[in-house]
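Renewal narrative, Specific Aim 1. Our central claim is that a sequence can be written position by position from structural information alone. The example that follows is taken directly from our test logs and has not been curated for this report. It begins with the structure tokens describing the chain, in the order in which they were read.
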């Protein structure tokens, strides 16, 4: 009888710990990395008819996420080579963004004691140069990207990615580690296969990392679609989709290029848990 009771107690304890492990995702750390800073020459390029001729500072973030099954890097920012250019990278169109890279991605990983070979997955929101600049710093990491983005022909019909890079071409939402802790959300519009990332942290709670589904808060609040976007209707639908995800998951929206928002975030080596 005593033995039986102990058996039940053990079984209940195991059930209890399994239930609590399930309630908390296995994501335990998120670092915000500085992957670029810039000045947009004319922000009406992103919000047609609004703020014409007004310039605005942009941030460019990468996010390094630790899950019990490994590290995932979300976006890789501007190419590290730009850090060595004294005047940064000037755009050919003066209305676009003049980018600088105050710190390399490689040096920020090094400061955290993380080697590029430690990164299991590199997931990118889309294939613009301010997001994929350092994908080849991680030649062994599996690239997680929407098939529609991967197959979108680049300038002169070239491939946007190194065909030798290991890749998982996704068609729609994807649960990266299988426990709901890190979810890629398909948000096409800015580009054909744009995606955003939902991350569930134990203390901070749920976050949606926008990619370029919106570029800054004013555009998000007013659902403005940049004239440079690939598909206006899909962009609008994707913003509505993200709004639904935010409500359902009680999530915060972190907008990648919003400098004012980034100025309020903790940057690496501090982290969110
Ligand atoms: Zn961008």
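The sequence written for that structure reads:
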């Amino acid at each position: 009888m005593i033995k039986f009771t102990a058996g039940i107690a053990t079984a209940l304890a195991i059930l209890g710990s399994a239930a609590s492990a399930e309630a908390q995702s296995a994501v335990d750390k998120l670092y915000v990395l500085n992957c670029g800073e810039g000045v947009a020459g004319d922000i009406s390029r992103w919000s047609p008819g609004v703020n014409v001729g007004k310039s605005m500072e942009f941030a460019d973030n990468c996010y390094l996420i630790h899950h019990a099954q490994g590290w995932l890097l979300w976006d890789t920012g501007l190419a590290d080579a730009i850090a060595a250019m004294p005047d940064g990278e000037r755009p050919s169109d003066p209305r676009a963004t003049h980018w600088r890279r105050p710190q390399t991605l490689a040096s920020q990983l090094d400061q955290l004691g993380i080697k590029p070979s430690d990164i299991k997955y590199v997931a990118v929101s889309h294939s613009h140069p301010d997001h994929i600049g350092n994908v080849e710093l991680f030649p062994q990491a599996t690239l997680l990207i929407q098939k529609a983005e991967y197959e979108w022909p680049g300038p002169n019909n070239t491939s946007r990615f190194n065909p030798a890079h290991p890749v998982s071409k996704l068609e729609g939402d994807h649960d990266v580690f299988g426990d709901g802790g890190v979810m890629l959300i398909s948000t096409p519009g800015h580009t054909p296969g744009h995606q955003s990332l939902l991350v569930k942290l134990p203390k901070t709670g749920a976050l949606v990392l926008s990619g370029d589904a919106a570029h800054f808060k004013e555009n998000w609040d007013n659902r403005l679609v940049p004239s440079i976007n690939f598909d206006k209707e899909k962009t609008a639908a994707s913003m509505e989709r993200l709004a639904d995800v935010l409500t359902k998951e009680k999530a915060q929206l972190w907008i990648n290029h919003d400098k004012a928002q980034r100025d309020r975030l903790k940057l690496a080596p501090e982290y969110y848990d």
